[in-house]
Structure formats: structure tokens, C-alpha cells
């Protein structure tokens, strides 16, 4: 809390214009600074409204808030407290971890920044409309951002963000703050796609100065005459909090299904990469999928613990422990 208050005071005092790096040519050796707006004081209390422009605290991209989600965050690094006040605000998960409600945001990413982000920009996927289809579809430039990762800013530009959905979802209102408000198309899109967009649980743990955050999403069930397949998406963020440089070289998962099946997945890196986490580039984020033949299951690192668990929102069938 002292760190947040200190940062807030410094931002209030300086009120510096925000500038970020924009690569104007393909050469990685050439960058230029461009003014994008004026930094605002981050909110310690309350939520950001639809249309709020921001810079991502970790990945640095420009974005805009579409709408908030309330998620339960299970942080294994935070010791459990047993006084009555905490019992009223925390929910129990097993015997070890309690979950605290926290605000996340559905956001659009500026397409100009996508090539330079150490995170997948097509990470939000959903199943096809056909019940028998196993096809997965992605919406480019859609992300989930925690409240503390929002660095808000303002601008006088009427088109401050480049994304194909910006004009469809938001409208410019010069007398509003922020000056971009939701159109009916955004509200209809949120309502229609709520089941596979909803963020409900977030799990965190730090081991040897590497902070892991995992968010599981239930995507739905595809049924045929012979079998039912339950699909999940999971997003994993790795952040190096120490001074030593580390590299993710290999993944080794054991995937258990309630039906009794066991699948082992092992290979180099993740999503075709072996990311290096250094003091200058400390974070990496990726998404992947898993399908189960039963409504419950879990994923574990070999020689490690089951880090997180996920549940299907609003009573839909299925459980996943990652």
C-alpha cells in the first residue's frame, strides 16, 4: 500500500506527458518516441469506466477498457488471516488458500503495438457455433488486465487506438470523462458472448522469484453420439521478480480426467517459444487449450504441485484443476 501511495504522489506531482516507444520501421535497432497523451493518477479505489485509455504496466501496450470482471484471486503468497473481518471478505478454497474479490478488465489492444508485446494477442478464443464442431476461433487484440496493471491516460485524439472493433464498440463523446462511451453493439456483444468471456478465478504463486499467474476459462462442451468433449482455455503469465535471468526451456504436464484417463504432454518451451525473463524484459504471457472426456479433471506439472483450480461459471458443467 505504501508503494502505491508513493507512486500516486509522484504522479500527482510530476503530471508528465506520456510517451512510449513506437517502432516505425522493421529494424529492431530503430525506435522513436511519440506523445500519446497525458498520464493520469492511477485509481487506488474504485473502478475504471468503459472507454478509459491506458498503458499496460507490464507489457507497455496502449489499450482501452471495454468492461470490468469481478474475479476471485487465490494467491498462495498471501498468508491466510483468520479474524472475523477477513472471514467476511474471503471465500475458502480447500484448506490452504482463500480467494479475494478483485477487478479485472476486458480490453482492446492497439494493433500498432501487437508485434512488440511479449504476450499472445490472439489469446482469447471460443468454440464454433456448431455443436459438433471442434474448431476454435480467436479475436485478435483482446486481453484481460488486472486493475493494478492499468496506467490511465487522456488524449485529445478522436481516434487514439487502432483496432477493428474500436469504432464498433465505442463512440466519441467530447463532454464525457473518459470521452469514449459504450455503443449498443458492445453491450449486445458482451451479453451474447458472456459464457466464454467471463473471468471468474485467478491463481497466483511465486517460486524462486518467478511469479506465476494462471487464469482458466471454461469454453463449453461439444457432444456427439459417442462422446462429450469439455473444452478449457488457460492463460499463464510468468514474471521474473529477481535479479537473475531465467529461461523457460521445457513444459511437462500430466492431464487427469474424471473418466480415468491420463495424458502426458512434454516438449520444448511453450507455444513455440523458450522465453527469457530478464530484468529488462521480465514477463511473458501465453494461452493454450485442453479438452477432457469428463466434466472434471486437473493438470499438474511433473515433480510439482497442482497450482490452480478452475470452475465452470453459472452452474455449467465441468471442473478443471491446473
What can you see in these coordinates?
- Strand 11 and strand 12 form a beta hairpin.
- Strands 1, 2, 3, 4, 5, 6, 9, 10, 13, 14, 15 and 20 form a twelve-stranded mixed β-sheet that branches.
- This protein has helices at residues 2-14, 84-89, 166-169, 184-197, and strands spanning 17-22, 32-39, 53-56, 62-75, 90-93, 97-109, 125-127, 136-138, 142-146, 150-154, 170-172, 180-182, 201-207, 210-223, 228-240, 246-247, 250-257, 262-268, 276-277, 283-292, 296-301, 309-311, 319-321.
- Helices cover 11% and strands 45% of the residues.
- The protein is globular and about 60 Å long.
- Residues 1-28, 83-95 and 303-322 have low confidence and may be disordered.
- The chain has four helices and 23 strands.
- The two termini are 30 Å apart.
- The chain is mainly beta.
Short descriptors:
mainly beta; 23 strands; single chain; 12-stranded mixed β-sheet; 322 residues
Topology:
Blueprint: H1 2-14, E1 17-22, E2 32-39, E3 53-56, E4 62-75, H2 84-89, E5 90-93, E6 97-109, E7 125-127, E8 136-138, E9 142-146, E10 150-154, H3 166-169, E11 170-172, E12 180-182, H4 184-197, E13 201-207, E14 210-223, E15 228-240, E16 246-247, E17 250-257, E18 262-268, E19 276-277, E20 283-292, E21 296-301, E22 309-311, E23 319-321
Parallel strand pairs: 4-13, 21-23
Antiparallel strand pairs: 1-2, 2-10, 3-4, 3-10, 4-6, 5-6, 6-9, 7-8, 11-12, 13-14, 14-15, 15-20, 16-19, 17-18, 17-21, 22-23
Amino acid at each position: 500500500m505504501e508503494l502505491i501511495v508513493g507512486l500516486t504522489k509522484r504522479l500527482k506531482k510530476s503530471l508528465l506527458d506520456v510517451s512510449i516507444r513506437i517502432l516505425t520501421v522493421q529494424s529492431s535497432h530503430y525506435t522513436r518516441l511519440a506523445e500519446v497523451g497525458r498520464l493520469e493518477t492511477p485509481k487506488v479505489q474504485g473502478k475504471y469506466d468503459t472507454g478509459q485509455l491506458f498503458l499496460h504496466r507490464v507489457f507497455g501496450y496502449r489499450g482501452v477498457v471495454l468492461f470490468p470482471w469481478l474475479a476471485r484471486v487465490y494467491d498462495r503468497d498471501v498468508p491466510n488471516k483468520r479474524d472475523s473481518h477477513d472471514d467476511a471478505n474471503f471465500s475458502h478454497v480447500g484448506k490452504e488458500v482463500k480467494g479475494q474479490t478483485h477487478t479485472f478488465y476486458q480490453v482492446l489492444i492497439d494493433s500498432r503495438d501487437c508485434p512488440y508485446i511479449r504476450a499472445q494477442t490472439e489469446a482469447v478464443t471460443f468454440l464454433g457455433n456448431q455443436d459438433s464442431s471442434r474448431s476454435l476461433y480467436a479475436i485478435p487484440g483482446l486481453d484481460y488486465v488486472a486493475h493494478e496493471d492499468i496506467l490511465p491516460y487522456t488524449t485529445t485524439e478522436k481516434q487514439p487506438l487502432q483496432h477493428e472493433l474500436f469504432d464498433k464498440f465505442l463512440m466519441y463523446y467530447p463532454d464525457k470523462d473518459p470521452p469514449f462511451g459504450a455503443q449498443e453493439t458492445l453491450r449486445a456483444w458482451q451479453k451474447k458472448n458472456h459464457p466464454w468471456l467471463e473471468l471468474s478465478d485467478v491463481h497466483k504463486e511465486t517460486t524462486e522469484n518467478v511469479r506465476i499467474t494462471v487464469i482458466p476459462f471454461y469454453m463449453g462442451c461439444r457432444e456427439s453420439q459417442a462422446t462429450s468433449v469439455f473444452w478449457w482455455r488457460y492463460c499463464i503469465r510468468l514474471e521474473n521478480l529477481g535479479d537473475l535471468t531465467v529461461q523457460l526451456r521445457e513444459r511437462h504436464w500430466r492431464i487427469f480426467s474424471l473418466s480415468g484417463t491420463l495424458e502426458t504432454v512434454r516438449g520444448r518451451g511453450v507455444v513455440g517459444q523458450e522465453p527469457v525473463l530478464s530484468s529488462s524484459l521480465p514477463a511473458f504471457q501465453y494461452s493454450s487449450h485442453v479438452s477432457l472426456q469428463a466434466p472434471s479433471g486437473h493438470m499438474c506439472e511433473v515433480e510439482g504441485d497442482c497450482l490452480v483450480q478452475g470452475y465452470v461459471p453459472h452452474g455449467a458443467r465441468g471442473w478443471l484443476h491446473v
